[in-house]
Amino acid sequence: MKLMRKKEFVAMLLAGGQGSRLGILTKKIAKPAVPFGGKYRIIDFTLSNCYNSGIDTVGVLTQYQPLELNSYIGIGRAWDLDRKNGGVSLLPPFVREKGGEWYKGTANAIYQNVSFINQYNPKFVLILSGDHIYKMDYSKMLQFHKDKESEATIAVIEVPWKEAHRFGILIPDENGRIIEFEEKPVNPKSNYASMGVYIFNWNVLKDYLEKDENDPNSSNDFGKDIIPKMLQENVRMYAYSFRGYWKDVGTVESLWEANMDLLGEKPQLDLYDYNWPIYSVTPTQPPQFISETAEINCSLVSEGCMIFGRVEHSVLFFGVHVGKNSIVKDSIVMPSVKIGRNAVIEKCIICENAVVEDNCQIGAAACNSKGITVVGDSLRVPAGQKIPAGMVIGSEQLVKRS
Amino acid sequence: MKLMRKKEFVAMLLAGGQGSRLGILTKKIAKPAVPFGGKYRIIDFTLSNCYNSGIDTVGVLTQYQPLELNSYIGIGRAWDLDRKNGGVSLLPPFVREKGGEWYKGTANAIYQNVSFINQYNPKFVLILSGDHIYKMDYSKMLQFHKDKESEATIAVIEVPWKEAHRFGILIPDENGRIIEFEEKPVNPKSNYASMGVYIFNWNVLKDYLEKDENDPNSSNDFGKDIIPKMLQENVRMYAYSFRGYWKDVGTVESLWEANMDLLGEKPQLDLYDYNWPIYSVTPTQPPQFISETAEINCSLVSEGCMIFGRVEHSVLFFGVHVGKNSIVKDSIVMPSVKIGRNAVIEKCIICENAVVEDNCQIGAAACNSKGITVVGDSLRVPAGQKIPAGMVIGSEQLVKRS
Amino acid sequence: MKDVMGIISLNENSDVLNNITNHRPLASVPFGGRYRIIDFVLSNMVNSGIQNVGVLTRYKHRSLIDHLRSGKDWDLDRKRDGLFIFPPENINNPAELYNGVMQNLYNNIDYIYKSRQKYVLVSGSDIIYNLNYRQVFDFHKQMKADITMIYKEINNINKLHSCSFITKMKNTRILDMEVNSCCSKSSKMCLEAYIMDKSLLIDIVNSCVSRGYIDFIKDGIVKNISILNVIGYQHTGYVAKINSIESYYQHSMDLLKTDIWKELFFKPGLVYTKVKDGAATKYTKDSVVRNSLIANGCIIEGTVKNSILFRGVRVDRGACIKNSIVMQKSVIEKNAVLENVITDKEVCITAGKILRGDKNYPLVIEKKKVI
Amino acid sequence: MKDVMGIISLNENSDVLNNITNHRPLASVPFGGRYRIIDFVLSNMVNSGIQNVGVLTRYKHRSLIDHLRSGKDWDLDRKRDGLFIFPPENINNPAELYNGVMQNLYNNIDYIYKSRQKYVLVSGSDIIYNLNYRQVFDFHKQMKADITMIYKEINNINKLHSCSFITKMKNTRILDMEVNSCCSKSSKMCLEAYIMDKSLLIDIVNSCVSRGYIDFIKDGIVKNISILNVIGYQHTGYVAKINSIESYYQHSMDLLKTDIWKELFFKPGLVYTKVKDGAATKYTKDSVVRNSLIANGCIIEGTVKNSILFRGVRVDRGACIKNSIVMQKSVIEKNAVLENVITDKEVCITAGKILRGDKNYPLVIEKKKVI
């Protein structure tokens, strides 16, 4: 009953991953829904990139704990993606006449939604993942794809040579055409890492998705199966070089680092640029209240916070309360956390709704052990508790973070 | 991050069924998304009932072919259910830390979403199914539930005795308390049939859902497992007697009948009552154009239609075209169907976007066989074709409807 | 077209449709069974890809605000840009010094200045047609025009008053124009839609106002026609200029021609309007409907010929409607007869009443009247 | 409360806040770091469960329309009922004959009449407080009142002008009132919010207008006070009446008291406003912020004390802001100093400039000024 009009360009956003390396942070929510940067969730960056790049049709593929993500995205109003034609569509796995199948891999997830994409009869498909922090104009990448008459274009970023072995590494020739691809090579031949951002000609991709589906040995993954196969069969593939901030926030350390990256004098990722705004769903909160006794430096603090203590080099989300004489340092404090008086929080991630009572000492300051300390959501840390660095406190239990 | 406020009453709408008895009508869409009554889909009735009864929090459980249903419901704007707190939530099956599970039965579907319901901490839960046509004020049923201090209330309707064996039959005592329940009894003891509309005290239901889940022999169904179990254990259960139009449109015949029921002089189901409007998503279509040569009687015709022929005792959805000298009789013609000249369509269901070319004869008129003829969506019936009654034409193939 | 800002100026004379424009501006007069007049130009803009539209109003705009609301029904409820309605805002200039468009533009020049778009498409709101402005915009750029205006070659110019005409053209360049001439000999009617650089528009408004010039076309465009490259774009499709009850009635009746129905509602784009809920229209065993345009939600038990029924009209048994326009939620009771009649919204014609107007002078029944 | 219709009447004097109300009605003056004054009474209504709100405007309502749009941010973008904005609409009565509320009500009496609700809550828009009207409504029904009005016992009555006061009460019944008295001895300030039957409201308006009476309170209520059961409901929470720059400044500064901040923004309900996107506020290594209210999107490199910063304000290194209110997107450049200053939106104070007002007479900087 819905009249679909042709779209040149459709984006498919993979948001179904569990992100198990984030531990208790993704116990109840999908990785793209993890809070970031004082008022965002990770997926806000990709969705805002889509809007700012002029893309108005985005399929979001969900699978793991999608409830919070679904209600967060809704029909995409926050990103101006509630359109009469196109807009955001949530695409969970579903049951067909012949039964249901979960998404087996990234390529299979797209394969199962071929009919969704076909509705728009697009020329190009953009594949994105919902767990990276970056600002990128996909329309420029599309222009590059057209200019090169490419059939598959992969966005790449130069990474430090010593880290290259952790990535999918592309080796382009002098024209940018990709001649080799190595997944996590021991001795990388280049430092161009794939960002997990692909543009395909839809007719080419559709072919490969079908072939891949019929291959019983495939793991149905873009990086492991589709791309190597295309390369092998001489599909015209180009590397699009991206310069700028890009971070995979797949681990507790990288999530913490990406937050801390925002606190420098001139951070590479500018959140205050009116020309490339990052949109998000804004809760109802009054302005933050900074008391007479507060001291705040090198920090991001969001609305609804009440600060009576000292906040240093930290990121505070909505509605955080920091009591008198408490110190919060090098930490991420998620929405609605309450911190009592005389507490010391150092190098911690405190999850939503947790309560840290008076005189607690959490994280590095407490002893000589190292690493980031994580306090799970809605937990209560009783008064006077000392928690050594590098621990994870989830469900009333203290465990060493692996 | 979302502040949930307590709700007294939450509705859960089961919309995951395939409706396999509807055959090709539900090949690509879930049963609740099947078009009905000239401009609705089946689920519009239940959603409009919710809004008109003052319920503002509705979970819609989807599983089978949900894409069209998802995009149709969106955030519930058409039913005024896009609320800051509550509103419509789409609830597909999902993957948890320990893996994913499809909804095994109606009770299991609710069980898997216990945490969704718990968010609102409701006192009562209303269980609905998305495949019945009726107008009902659930707030009156809730009042009855409270007045009787019931723990589980089932809406019942009196059916003709000879049909009672097809339903779940309840036997209430003189106060309305249910003393017996029989699923499809050979010799029914009453003619009170369950409408599949339940109100439970949430704390009671939660208990039984957990017990049911731990019972390896259970089929996890409300009618087959939960209700009998509750009855057995003396839960206070009452029958709420509903008078008015109610129809299960689970078969091609009943779907056809329910449509034809609208065409009488004073149909029991009044679609023009301003006090109980049925809401739906309205496509962009101009007013219908009735030509000089058209004749229309005893029919429902929707916007965007162009009628040059004769339409008698039929239901025409959006954008249907009926050519000169064609006759459409006792039929349901779904959106955007094109019917050429000199065609005769009798007792048919023609699905979306189908094309019937000139001089075709489809249905009863063509020969002596009986029954409803179904033409699948987007099919083209070539000029001059004669299709006998009772056939199903899906994917270019003619088959006898079983 | 993302770089073009749409401006719809409600510059029409206010009371051209007698009773029908008593309580609403012409732009929000119901038309074509389920639309308002403004829906057509607004849908043209949306279908062309314009994402920022300002509606500049003058009088009685309550019904317009209620109709447009947030712009959602036109997909113009956006985070950036979208639909903006500007009420008359005249703090420092309480007197109305300028004519129609000029006054509206002058009042809201700050908003126009502030917008992100480089080009503007300024349009009136009382001409109905279906056109994708993208073609006009491409033509504008290709011709390196300063101003491109859309015109239509018409046959029957006698009926047209309060229009602008192009009186002299050389190829596509416009050399002279006439405004509101009651005896124009030109056949090139101007559709009151102009594309130009935003900066040029602001220039024209400011320089006119600072010199006390008051009319946008006469002073702003015609006086500069020799120094500006003003280009005409010919629209070949159907055009309905609404400036009197007669033209309203005639153009409504035009919709009963299949070709015009198809063109105006489908080609090149669809027409959007405020969504209302209502069932499909019901025809009973006694209903006789011929050559008519019927919106949803009607119940027709009587006879309807050569007429237009808006949403939710009830025609009781024995009632007969001919050559008439019946607006939303009106009720025509048993055996009542309407011929050459226009009823406004929620009118009730009681049983047996007979009302006849003339083809050239239809009878108009005011909103909510019971007769 | 579904059976109560909310009516917000923008009846205030238009220019009480000098430069700040030059371009907007008082109702849309920014307040409290991210709100407009009207947000408070509107949120009170929404939090009480009222689902149909009409906003009756008078002058300069463009900024208000832009702020409220479809009402979505207050969950009032509904299919039935929701938010309606009524521009001044005065076709048959071009002259302004009546005072404030009366004129507004009279102009829109048809809309009020048509609404589905049985009761009305009529409110002004220039008094800020957080109250759930459900209690007041329960009290109204319990007392079988004809009219229930909300009042507040205040201590410091000297500062209040252009207010209504209750001068005589017996238990909860109100026996006499004074309007706009500059030397009232009463301490019971009326919050300009009245609950009554819709039919009574229509009666009052119609009978006043037909007799040429012009003031809603003096003529409509006080003249009938002996025959109507007019009841007072005491509000014990914080109240801010905005009727001058001084009161605006003082009440803004009150928000820096923790208790008032908590009460006004959280108890009993949250305050909704138009959603804007903006990052969290950034504090750098040199920033010194004490006893201040800071909205999101600011970048603070300097010193801020006892002040309120709206969304997106930039405070450069070495700049110092004390006892001041800085509205949206203003920029305070290096080493500039502000003390007892109110800047409107998008003001820029260039490097090194020093501006000082007095505590009792703050310096007001007009919108978009560069100093």
Write a brief structural summary.
Chain A has 402 residues and is α/β, with parallel strands linked by helices. Chain A has 8 helices and 34 strands. In chain A, the strands form 7 sheets. In chain A, strands 1, 4, 5, 8, 10, 11, 12, 13 and 14 form a 9-stranded mixed sheet that branches.
Assembly type: heterotetramer
Structural class of chain C: alpha/beta
Broad shape of chain C: elongated
The number of E-state strands of chain C comes to 28
Strand content of chain A: 25-35%
User: Could you name the CATH homologous superfamily of the largest domain in chain C?
Assistant: Spore Coat Polysaccharide Biosynthesis Protein SpsA, Chain A
Mean pLDDT of chain A, nearest integer?
Answer: 90
Q: How many structural domains does the protein architecture of chain C include?
A: 2
Structural class based on helices, strands and sheet pairing of chain A: alpha/beta
Helix content of chain C: 10-25%
Number of helices of chain A: 8
Query: Which CATH architecture of the largest domain in chain C is right?
Result: Alpha-Beta Complex
Report on this structure.
The complex is a heterotetramer, with two copies of chain A (402 residues) and two copies of chain C (371 residues). By secondary structure, chain A is α/β, with parallel strands linked by helices. The relative contact order of chain A is 0.12. By secondary structure, chain C is α/β, with parallel strands linked by helices. Chain C contains nine helices and 28 strands. Chain C has helices at residues 37-47, 62-68, 100-107, 109-114, 133-142, 198-211, 216-221, 245-254, 258-266; strands at residues 4-9, 30-31, 35-36, 52-56, 82-86, 119-123, 127-128, 147-153, 164-170, 173-179, 188-197, 230-234, 240-241, 281-283, 288-290, 292-294, 299-300, 303-305, 308-309, 314-315, 320-322, 325-326, 331-332, 337-339, 341-343, 348-349, 354-356, 363-365. Chains in contact: A-B, A-C, A-D, B-C, B-D, C-D. Chain A binds chain B through residues 1-3, 16, 18, 27, 35, 62-67, 70-71, 74-75, 77, 89-97, 100, 102, 115-116, 281, 283-284, 317-318, 335-336, 352, and chain B through 1-3, 16, 18, 27, 35, 62-68, 70-72, 74-75, 77, 89-97, 100, 102, 115-116, 281, 283-284, 317-318, 335-336, 352.
